[in-house]
Amino acid sequence: MGRILPALTLELRDDRGRTHRVHLPDSPKPTHVFEDIAPRMTDADGDGQPDVVVVQTDPAQGAQLAIYALRGGQVVKAHATPHIGQPFRWLAPVAIADLDRDGVTDIALIDRPHLRRELVVWTFAPGGLTVKARLPDLTNHRIGEETIAGGLRDCGQGPELVLASADWTRVRIAAFDEGALSARDAGALDPGALDAALACAR
């Protein structure tokens, strides 16, 4: 991610101005790191309270998406996807929203944006996070870039995900239709094309 380095500390400030920190163990060497562009503040699990969503990586098992929450005055890891299962394997978040409009928050991410290039949508179900849908040949990050491309839009037809084709030549728009996830082509991936798609100009 260019000049963005992995971090060991997540710092939160609550509505009373108090600071809370999560410091990942780093002795004799880190067992986990935060490996992300920036934390995301949102009510990810639908309980009415804000959460912090970050990519957290185990050097031996790869990345996972972790959701931290303030519970009883302490910051805890409330939910997480499984680690990918291999060293040096990353994931890139896309969006956190009710993507199929069933009243339950969904979390979309790209599993291994440089290798597997698969869109995976997780949702909350009894017992925790579960996979709702998968769609191959999509990505949102290139090695060395300090941003995650694309994201969420709603152009009046409901939530849609703006992504790149696996080979970075086309803009792809992914969405749920009657419970099924699919992606359609939205033109050549010229400079500014993803931003235009996010602005509903494609």
Task: Give an overview of the whole structure.
By secondary structure, the chain is mainly beta. It contains 1 helix and 16 strands. Helix content is 3%, strand content 50%. A hairpin with a 4-residue loop joins strand 13 (151-154) and strand 14.
Evaluate the radius of gyration: 17 Å
* Class computed from helices, strands and strand pairing: mainly beta
User: Number of helical runs?
Assistant: 1
Portion in beta strands: over 45%
| Low confidence ranges | none
Largest sheet report: 5 strands, antiparallel
The SSE string, one letter per element, is EEEEEEEEEEEEEEEEH
- Work out the number of β strands: 16
**Helix proportion:** under 10%
Shape: globular
Distance between the termini: 28 Å
Write down the overall mean pLDDT: 94
